[in-house]
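In this supplementary section we document a worked example of the pipeline. Step one takes a protein sequence of length 255 as its only input; no multiple sequence alignment statistics are reported here. Step two produces a three-dimensional model, which step three serialises into C-alpha cells for compact storage. The input and output of this example are shown verbatim.
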Amino acid sequence: MILTIDIGNTNVLFCFFVKNIIKKSYRLSNPQVSYNSILKILRSIKKDLKKINVVVSSVVPEMESFFRSFFLKISIQPFFLSKIINKKNFNTLIKNKNSIGDDRIVNVSYAIEKFKNSIIVIDFGTATTFDVIDKKGVYVGGVITPGIDLSLNSLNINTAKLPLVNFKKTKSVVGIDTKMAIQSGFFWGYISMVEGLIRKIEVEKRNKFKVILTGGNAKSFDKLIKNVDLIDTFFTSKRLNSILQKYLRLNNEKI
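The serialised model returned by step three reads:
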C-alpha cells in the first residue's frame, strides 16, 4: 500500500493506493494537521503502519518539517519527492529549475505521460495555476492567479460590509442582492478568466491545447469551461503514486 501526502498552502490531501486504485482519501485544512489527526488517518486504513510506503510532496517548508518529525516519531521513513526526482532532467525552458514547485513538476510530468504534448494543466488551489506544455512536450512556463477561496476571504477581510460567501454556481449573471452579486462575480468571472487565458495562451503559442482541470474546485467547472479534456481532483496524488511505484521497482523494494 502507498500513501501519498500532497501538502499545499491551504490543505493536505492524503490518498491511500492499492496499486493504482484509491482506497481512501482525506483532506485536512492546514490548521487541522496535528500528530493525533495524522495518526488517526493512518490507523483508519492499516494497523501495521510499517507496511505503508509513504511519499510526500510539499510546497510549504514548515509543514514538510512537521511531517518529517511526525514520521520520525512513529519510526517510518517516508520518501520526500524532492529526494526521489531529479529536476535537472526536467524538460523546461525555465532557467532556475529549483524554483519550480513540486506540485507543478508532478502535474506537468503526469500530463505529458497521458497526453504527450500541447497541454494546459489548470490547478485550482490556494493559487490557480496554469502550466503550459508545448508541441514538443516541453514545459514552457505558466500563469499564476489568486485562488478562489483566497480571493473570497480577501474580499471579506478587506471590506467593511461585503460578506463571506460560498463559491457556487448562480442561475443568473446579474445578482439581485450583494451575496448573489459576489457569488456570480466569482463563479462566472472565474470561468471567463480561465477561458480568456486559454484563448490568449493559444494565440500567443499558435497552438491548440488539451486542457486538464485539477485541484479542490475543479469539479465546480464540469461542462462549464469549454473544451476540457480531463477533470481529476486526484491528478497530483495519482502521479505521486506512480512516481513512488517506479522508484520502489528500480530499487527492488516491496510495494
